[in-house]
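Structure ticket #2291
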Amino acid sequence: MAETLSLPGFVNAHSHAFQRALRGRTEGGDFWGWRDDMLELAASLTTDQVRKGYVQVYGEMLGAGYTVVGEFHYLGLAEAHATLALVLVSAWDTTEAVRSARRAVALEPTNWRHFFRLGHASWGDERLRAAAKTLALYPDFAFAHFQMAMVHVARGHLADAETVLRQGAAVQDRQMARGDRYPGLGLHWLLGLVRLAQDDVGDAIQEFDRELGLAEPHRLYGREYTMHAHLGRGAALLRAGRVRDAAGSFLQARDQYPDLPLPQAGLALAAAGGADWTRAESAAAALAKSRPVRGALARGVIQAARGEAAAAAATLQKVLDEAPPGFAGWWLPVDPMLRQAIEGEQLRRVMATVAERAS
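Resolution: structure written out below.
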């Protein structure tokens, strides 16, 4: 008799993989409380988060012997168009993404989630209108303020960005104080970058510290904004001449995402004369393989941070000229690693292109 026995894989005929994110969070309540939490989670998840969650859950199923799964996710026709818009944005097919989101809005014109997704897919004035409609339907949706601020930053209208961000940060703080399960994040981080771009180093550091106090790793986007806040804080400390403290912040940013290029670039900047840019450049090249636009933008920022303004301008201009319509490079006007290069002539055209794309 054979020493091993082969059996067919199990079949999971009914799965809601995204609900794994609720594990350990809903004990003690009744079904209706769980249902409300589940629907809130489903509405808040991005396509990328859903995809990552599915990979994890399906890996666990495979390890337990399941080889077939029937997956159920909550969709209607409008929801399908809105979800498709998110997927298309991730694929940088922004033109089709906007069309799909507009269909969702037309089908369900009182659903704030569809206007949010239209704002995510669109850019310029259409994003501002979609975000304003989102807030009219759901005033406590903090990320709509973030969406609007992105446009103002790209246009170089930092005073407008600051106004919107302070409004959104107040919403974010209220959500945290109430103990909301899925509060907004990122408002204090972006406000810190805006303040730093206006040379208010002290206020910028305070905003980065506020973000760090809120962006706990278990929260949605918590790890991402923890890294971004450490990066911003490091840049502000470097501006203040506190090189050792800056290096510490860049190290903490790198600890969150060791393979990303900008934490490595921050460490190289803090090293001054002993800077080694090899890791930052290698990380940017690796990122470009999976996310070409993001990787190329990182490469341009690294070139600028190294003092290679002409090369940075050429790299960034090429990315912007070739990128589909949308928000590529929106943050460049407040990126602290570009500050010295922005003050020269080489990057002036780049910033003008960023603004034109947001018109």
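Closing remark: The CA atoms of residues 71 and 272 lie 52 Å apart.
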